[in-house]
Amino acid sequence: MASSFPLTGADGSGAHGTTSARVVGQVPDDMQMIRAAATLTRDLNAARPAIYWTDLLASVAIGYGAFAGAVLAPSLALALLSGVIAVLALYRAGSFIHELTHLRPDAVPGFNAGWNAFVGIPLLIPSFMYEGVHNLHHQRTRYGTAKDPEYLPLALMKPWTVPLFVAVAALGPVGLIIRYGVLSPLSALIAPLRRIVVERYSGLVINPAFRRVMPEGRARRHWLVLEVLASAWAMSLIALVATGTIPMRAFLIGLAVASGTMVLNQIRTLVAHLWENEEQVMSVTAQYLDSVNVPPPGLLPELWAPVGLRYHALHHLLPGVPYHALPEAHRRLSRELGSSTYALANYRSLSGLIGRLVRSTFRTNSSR
């Protein structure tokens, strides 16, 4: 079927208060916007190591400190408060995995290894789970198709898929313990299982049809080192809990915190795009308009879409701009382009975006 999406802004109307719609495959590229994006942000492409390290280390310190507070809290209220802080801080720390896929290896020295040591291995989301996967989502002829690991036409699916999409994420931490603590060591001995583990359980993806290929050379060695470390940690964790060395209460709180970060990320993913394309190759502008910015003045997006993810549409336009420079890039483009195509990807709130998606699912299914 021909997919379409309304070119509407945050209030449900277009740039001039209209509610127009265009077929996705027919949206031409807005060359003025594309050229302006390139020329106005040329000085913003350099990553600033001090910002990356300070942000990551602060998030990690707050996150693990709050987790310890949740375990040791003398009251339920204090435990819950600490747990919420831990979820938000560790979610922010985990979100740097997105930056790792776009950073040049020498842009922030040691950051890949540091992130894996502080976040990737402890939370069982080593960076190879996203490296070599996320870049496929940015390929122009792959975006929004069955070959895109990070795309599902959720707006064109059944209404119940929206809550199911979020609920499944709650089981993520258990799945990762099984993947690294059980399947990974077994797959080293059983070749057919290894193929399944590599193809289906080695990427942070949402497209169930996606099958991963083991990389070669340096990327392969990087993968294997991280996988061995993650497996050693997962097996140790299982053993420590089984022997009572780690109390079951502390383990369950850890699972709850990790689950919270994954659910929050899944909710953010739910509104990262409009999800209204179905198997059509899209222009750069169409991809931009199928993506979402939630710019200031709202403050809450800094919690549920941290590390620049509140500028997701802009990121698709300028994937090389580091997260800390996206606010300035947005200000420049907003001043230059005003209420042009650029403004049509800006939305006000999480609730409005979720409501829009749910209405789209009902509208799509009522017309079939």
TrEMBL record:
Q: Which CDD domains does this UniProt record tie to the protein?
A: Membrane-FADS-like
Top-rank taxon of the source lineage equals Bacteria
Residue ranges spanning the membrane: these are 62-91, 111-130, 160-182, 223-242
What InterPro entries does the annotation carry?
FA_desaturase_dom, Fatty_acid_desaturase
Region span, Disordered = 1-21
Limits of the Fatty acid desaturase domain:
79-339
Protein name per Swiss-Prot or TrEMBL: Fatty acid desaturase domain-containing protein
